[in-house]
Amino acid sequence: MPEWILSAGDPYPWHASGAIAFKGYVWRGRSGPLAGEKAASLFSGIQKQAELQNLLDKLEGVFSVMIRADDGILAGCDPMGFFPVFYTSSDVAWIVSDDPYLLSGTTGSRTPNTQARAEFLSGGHVMGDETLIRGVRRLRPGEALFLKNGLAREDGRPFAFVPSGSSSSDAEALKDDLFRILDAQARDMVEYLGGRTAVIPLSGGYDSRLIACMLKKAGYERVVCLTYGRHNQETGLSERVARTLGFPWHFVDYDRLDVGHFSDDPLFRDYCRYAGNLVSMPFLQEYFAVKFLKENDLLPADSVFLPGHPGDNLGGSFISRGAKGEFQDTARHIVRTFFPFVPHDKDTERHLELRARHWLPSHLSDSAGKIPGYTPAVETWNFSERLPKFIFNSARVFPFFGYRVYFPLWSRRMASFFSRIPYSLRDGKKLYDEVLESRYFGPLNVVFGFGEIPGKRPLKIPRALRRLGWNLLPSALLRKKAAKADWICYGKFTAELGRSLKAQGKKPLERYRSLNALICQWYLENEWK
Fold first, then answer.
1. Strand 60-69 with 15-17, pairing
2. pLDDT tens for residues 400-416?
């Protein structure tokens, strides 16, 4: 018989009631946020994979669920898989857990998945349903999976963002529609907060500013804005937004923060284990800020963090960054777009292309190739792979420190809306930015004119020339380029990881396009073992 092993801890414990275990929070229609026993009751009586998949497709929220059926275990999760579920097989049965480290020990040996190492090092995550350990797999975002008695498996249908541009409404009507959707998102957010302190990681960008405006417009008063890193143009903008809206603003100066040999700290290693889960790069971006606030009692214990993921991606920011154009080899383009941390030799690139091609069919958009100059399949991949495992996963830092997290700019209804609006209104976030500026920022006096953030639209250099430059430029020059835009002090933090690697007799990477590569290297040499 299949069995499950559930861990404790973080502010979202598993609620196990009879045959059902539930973690997180969920909406069904206008029910309001449900958790614990009330949420688990939604899944009562489900015995078939198709039944669970049909229900998952109707639910909003951030959650995972496991169900003991008559002939096996059903497992499902939300479209971003924020609370990951893993599974493996022993000689006689399936074993399911939210902790892949526990599963890697049940198989008798911990065999590394060497096929996945290159993609993790250059993209910060493992493709598909695999992990860094062979034989340990992950439930795909939005999927209902049935692990049956006798080691049979019935896969589900993972969530897919499929841009179709099928809406026939004009631009003004679509703006009204988006405003109504954002207004509904704000009501849900306020209902979930329930009087608790809202903490907005506030940058100078539009997504976090929108969340602050949504709360201000809703009359929600228990709000704290958090900015971190080093002083720059965006720091000034974030402070100006917070002050204008009347919200308190905390700035954690990373230049002045003494982090010491943090890589030796058991707390940091616990975080890497929790956030990495043998699939994803553990982000350092907010780790030190949240740790500082926690240790200095600067936030109430019941605070809820409100990151802006993935507003800009829904709005269309990734079109110009990867989906613009028509590509003869989609897998090759995906590798060059989504796995850029380190330069690849031809053999490595060919290997990554084969891996991407293996996982590509289930992520292809039905509308691929229908819009001249645009390849929707690239955005579909972005929402299926990069966003769940790399962007959303970065928010696991908040529950690690005991805080709740809520995503005001993500829901199935938002994904459905943006999938249908015409390509021309998503390219460059045209409709999204116009609604934010005219309906939120302007009325609340937090739009500061064109050129707020200089250098956001650099001169476009052809891809072939960029690749040639990366392969020919000296390592020192590459490091200098990476440090130039290092507003979150990753150079400071990754230097410590480099020291740690050297102390272990390992050679830190010299050629890299992103400091993330050093974080991935350190994780591969330490926390996955």
1. unpaired
2. 999 999 999 999 999 99
